[in-house]
Amino acid sequence: MSAPYRKGLHHLGHGCHAWLLPDGSWGWSNSGLITGSGASLMVDTLFDLALTREMLDGIRTVTDAHPVRTVVNTHSDGDHVFGNEVLAAYDVEIVASEPAAALMTQEAVDSLAALKRLQGPTGDFARHIFGPFTFDGITATGPDRTFTGVESLDVGGREVRLIQVGPAHTPGDTLVHVPDARLLYAGDILFVGGTPIAWAGPLDRWIAALDRILDMDVATIVPGHGPVSGKDEVHAMREYLVFVESEARKRYEDGLGVDEAIASIDLGAYRDLPEHGRLAQNVLNVYQQLDPSMDRPDRLTVLSRIAALEGFATSA
Ligand SMILES: [Zn+2]
């Protein structure tokens, strides 16, 4: 079941819905809604309070009869959890994997807010990509309950399965599977129409998570960013990760430093993907797996490398 890539609520059949936020670039994430009899489960909240409130208004046609009783965060990134505070005001239980929960801190909120106030090109880049979002005033709201492995939830009489596949994109990635709808909410295990970014990795584990999806009996896949998709898009993203893994490994084995490796990889057609500068983090990730003693730069340093690769720092 496909849906036009338009902001707002999309009915995907079998009581499953997506709230899409084009264009899927930094912070423009998707949310999901699964309804059973008299109850709904929300998959992820949005990047700030206003966006999340707007979504709650927009899904009222569904939630009036089937109120949200459960929220599942697919992972710890702010664009999937910063709106939790809004949902916590209702009678809901928030659920996340244990490693994701550990990262859903006030510091995570405050550091993004601080990033937007930073002087210099990295601050300029942060204001460019995060400009539309408001982080000030957000109170970090973690889950009421955590899980590890696989967990089955009952949503108004139907089964929803949470499948922990991280670390991959982040330490605590979770897939949300609705077996009777043959539908999967992939969170940021799937990026469509943009470049994936491996904050945690290793890439092998992410590739394994994609293989797991390919083995599942699902017809419709809602990615964390991008339009409603299917297995073709999973194959396409898998190819990108395999490409980066092999190009980076080759350069590591040839003795190139990580910056040389990043600069020398010819992305070919992947250069046309938005956020292609995320290559910097993805190569870094491969190097860190091959040499665990390597220094791990913080997200700020990574962001400045991404900005440079996309020509932002030099043109700002
Ligand atoms: Zn993410």
Per DSSP, what share of the residues sits in E-state strands of 2 or more residues?
15-25%
Largest sheet: 7 strands, mixed
In round numbers, the mean pLDDT is: 96
Indicate the CATH topology: Metallo-beta-lactamase, Chain A
* Spatial shape: globular
User: How many strands in all?
Assistant: 12
How far is the first residue's CA from the last residue's CA? 42 Å
Into how many domains do the coordinates divide? 1
The bound ligands are: zinc ion
Describe the structure.
By secondary structure, the chain is an alpha/beta fold. The chain has one domain: Metallo-beta-lactamase, Chain A (4-Layer Sandwich). The chain has 13 helices and twelve strands. A hairpin with a 4-residue loop joins strand 10 and strand 11. Helix 7 crosses helix 12 and helix 8 packs antiparallel against helix 9. The longest helix has 23 residues. The model has no long low-confidence stretch (mean pLDDT 96). The chain binds zinc ion.
Give descriptors for this structure:
Metallo-beta-lactamase, Chain A; binds zinc ion; seven-stranded mixed beta sheet; 21% strand; alpha/beta
What is the structure about, briefly put?
With 316 residues, the protein is an alpha/beta fold. The chain has one domain (8-315): 4-Layer Sandwich (Metallo-beta-lactamase, Chain A), CATH 3.60.15.
List the helices and strands and how they pair.
Elements: E1 8-13, E2 16-20, E3 31-35, E4 40-43, H1 49-58, H2 60-63, E5 68-72, H3 78-81, H4 84-88, E6 93-97, H5 98-102, H6 106-115, H7 120-130, E7 145-147, E8 150-155, E9 158-164, E10 174-178, E11 183-191, H8 203-215, E12 220-225, H9 231-253, H10 258-264, H11 279-290, H12 299-309, H13 312-315
Parallel strand pairs: 4-5, 5-6, 6-7, 11-12
Antiparallel strand pairs: 1-2, 2-3, 3-4, 8-9, 9-10, 10-11
Helix pairs in contact: 7-12, 8-9, 9-11, 10-11
The chain binds zinc ion.
